[in-house]
Amino acid sequence: MASWGRKIASSGGILAVCVVAGLYITKPERLAPDALEGMIPSTENGARVFSAMGCASCHSAPLGVEYENDALGGGKRFPSPFGTFVAPNISSHPTAGIGTWTDLEIADAVLKGTSPTGEHYYPAFPYATFNKAKLQDIVDLIAHLRSLPAIDTPREAHDLGFPFNMRVSLGGWKLLFVNTDWVVTGDLTPQQEHGRYLVEAMGHCGECHTPRNVLGGSEKTLWLAGAPNPVGKGRIPNITPGEFNWSEADVVEYLTSGFTPEYDSAGGEMADVVENIAKLPSADREAIAAYLQIVPAHSSK
Domain of 135? Predict the structure, then answer.
């Protein structure tokens, strides 16, 4: 019996060591404390980054709540197979929003998916895409966010069941699925590289247009090949050359006016995306169109 007891104790000790090691390896990451030192923000570029990243699409008011599009009081609900996520208030309000956060804390949230209290954020906040953004662009974005109205809408908790309500597990998810590698590589022109930056780092197009595995990780081998709609109605379209045969001019027009070559118009969440991208310089929309022409072609599943 004593021998069995020693074996159980030994096994328990090994398990404890493994758990501690796992928690250490997957702990929330932060930027270096001096990462933003000497960086001078540009609110003009910050407004452009704000549009490119589509912040208002998720964090502005849900239907039935009246305030301006750039007032980021949150409250929109996003159903998913894991539960319902609720967009938080990211306005400059000191208690309901992020008005008391430091610039470094906001940058940690956007680039590392880490909260000021050291918790992992859920990837419904697309830091897995934003982590490829240039640090200067994030500094500029923060300056723009601070210029927007303070909204006192209280934050709502996500509606998630077990085990998805355990944030500690997200460290392992990040380890598996989050990196800063570009999806489309090779000998790209400067315009195509700029388009890649706008699509893969800023616009987070892949968050909706790329299918996910059972753990919610993007299937990068099917980049932009279309995916089921998380709300269960219809399908997010394939926008690779395998099925998407619009010309670059067609794409630019759609991202400017919302009209397709067939004279249909953008609807649903895509209408918000078009509204944001239409605010960018025409050269940005042209770069996105050029990038979409070189994405690996896939047929829809």
Answer: 43-177
Contact 245, 252 (CB under 8 A): no
Distance CA 14, CA 16 (A): 5
| pTM of the predicted model as reported, rounded to 2 decimal places | 0.88
Would you say how long the chain is, in residues?
Answer: 301
Torsion, Cα of 215, 220, 222, 227 (10° steps): 40
Q: From the CB of residue 42, how many other CB atoms can be counted at a distance below 10 Å?
A: 16
| Residue 36 within any structural domain of the chain | no
* pLDDT: which is higher, 99 or 12: 99
CB 107 within 8 A of CB 130: no
**Boundary (domain end) residue, out of 177, 208, 235:** 177
Same domain, 202 and 170: no
- Given 177, 199, 225, the domain boundary residue is 177
Residue 2 belongs to a domain: no
- Is 162 buried (19+), middle (13-18) or exposed (0-12) by CB count in 10 A? exposed
284 & 233 share domain: yes
Q: Give domain status of residue 15, yes or no.
A: no
pLDDT in tens, 200-258: 999 889 998 999 998 889 999 999 999 988 766 778 899 999 988 899 999 999 999 99
**183 in a domain, yes or no?**
no
